[in-house]
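Page 37, top half.
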Amino acid sequence: MPVENVADGIQRQMIVGDKIMICRLRFAPHTVTAAHDHPHEQMTLVGSGRVLFTIGEEKRIAHAGD
């Protein structure tokens, strides 16, 4: 799959079907993304490192394998 540079420090690879989209994202260390939401459910698997998610008022750190 081709790699897209979608923003500074963020690379994306995507597979899009009729009913599913799978994205592989790579973030450079200390990358901060803008707050956003999705109209659908989202699932994330952290392959390496860790990431801080903020969902509503709750903050949660996910580690590799989460």
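Page 37, bottom half:
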Amino acid sequence: MRAHKPTDEIRAKVESLAAVGTRYEDIALYLGITRPTLDKYYKEELKIGTIKANAAIANTLYKQALDGNTTAAIFWLKKKKK
């Protein structure tokens, strides 16, 4: 078995796949590596992708709440009580 060599292209792909909610096991399978290898080499990309996705969704929800979407406003407020 040959060693895995991360590249900027693979890093970008991992971040992109994480951002759209792809399961980490599926990302590893897509790349042809194990889950531990994914975690070892792409920890930051997995985190950043997930953060970007959550931020985009939260931003959309926030805008909808401000525009008068009552359901969005209630959901926003419930999640902010933490």
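Margin note: The chain has four helices and no strands.
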